[in-house]
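DM between two lab members

TW: hey, do you still have the Response regulator entry open?
JB: yeah, one sec
JB: this one, 146 aa:
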Amino acid sequence: MATDGKTIFLVEDNRGDIRLIQEALKTTGAQHQVVVARDGVEAMTYLRSLSQTPQAVPPDLILLDLNLPKKDGREVLAEIKADPALMHIPVIVLTTSQNEEDIAHSYDLHVNCYIAKSRNLKDLFKIVRGIEEFWLETATLPSIGP
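TW: and the structure you got?
JB:
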């Protein structure tokens, strides 16, 4: 199954993590478009602007950090899953938090998957490749574009 042309919306405030995730995605060979928001307000502004633009195509996948400035990832997740125009976009929490409350709360908010980031470069690349392989190659996702 081809994965070219998929859009990943990366909501992450750490420049180093953004760069590493983008590099890990490049190693898969698929031609993904990665759109980045560096805080929760920017993320929701971007996502809400999609419904205002008739030809705009929502992302195929959202990678969401929990610990964001301005509006944290928990609030962003709650807003995405409460919005009928956005709720079907798969959201993967990709964060450093391994706190049981964060994990449980994310699933209460209907996150599709919760993954703790590794600080080990090799492991982080493996995680990102696994996300790409499962969510963009293997899983059947809803058609949410125009």
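TW: got it. The mean pLDDT is 86. Residues 78 and 109 are 6 Å apart (CA to CA).
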